[in-house]
Design brief:
Radius of gyration: 16 Å
CATH superfamily: q2cbj1_9rhob like domain
Distance between the termini: 18 Å
Shape: globular
Strand content: 35-45%
CATH class: Mainly Beta
Length: about 190
């Protein structure tokens, strides 16, 4: 399942999330997505995908606002949870359990490339993923589905919903300076 929804999030909330994540006081951590260091985690077809599409290691800034199993919840969590509730109400329309919510920021690169194909949780595939695009940008989300690649272009306020067992990868922007998304994992209850 891959579902794209545009213009369903209140404009005030779209603007509020953009402002929060653009603030100089918003805390980011540096994360390197590095295939060689993490290849022991890649036990499925992602190894073949990463080789076939010449996936690139990348640095990104990350803010983990919530992680269920590790009891992580930052002071910014309520702002992002409001977004999650709105998506649940307008798109999912079922009872759900939030598993993880994080904000990712990728920087401009000179040449187009696809970052590392992955699953957000390689141990438990019984979940769904939401990618919420914070800003207009290039740097598509690339999803491997039924032997084909599907590209989703970032647009502020767009919501992407996909099954947790679909391998996907980000791409750094080439025209815009940054690409910001909120990555949410949840399961039905």
């Amino acid at each position: 399942m891959i579902i794209e929804k545009k213009n369903i999030i209140r404009k005030e909330l779209v603007k509020s999330i953009e402002n929060i994540t653009s603030s100089e006081t918003f805390p980011w951590g540096l994360y390197k997505e590095h295939y060689d260091l993490n290849k022991h985690l890649y036990t499925g077809i992602e190894s073949k995908l990463n080789k076939k599409y010449n996936s690139q290691d990348t640095y990104q800034l990350v803010h983990v606002a919530y992680k269920d199993k590790q009891k992580i919840k930052t002071v910014y969590f309520p702002f992002f949870y409001e977004l999650f509730e709105e998506i649940v109400q307008k798109v999912i329309k079922k009872d759900v359990q939030l598993l993880r919510l994080k904000v990712n920021l990728l920087f401009k690169k000179d040449k187009p490339s696809i970052n590392i194909f992955h699953l957000d949780d390689s141990k438990d595939k019984d979940y769904k993923t939401i990618i919420y695009y914070i800003n207009d940008s290039d740097g598509d989300t690339v999803i491997y589905n039924k032997g084909k690649l599907k590209r989703i272009s970032p647009k502020a306020g767009k919501v992407l919903l996909l099954d947790g067992d679909l391998y996907h990868a980000s791409s750094n922007p080439n025209k815009y300076d940054i690409r910001k998304v909120i990555n949410i994992n949840f399961k039905y209850v």
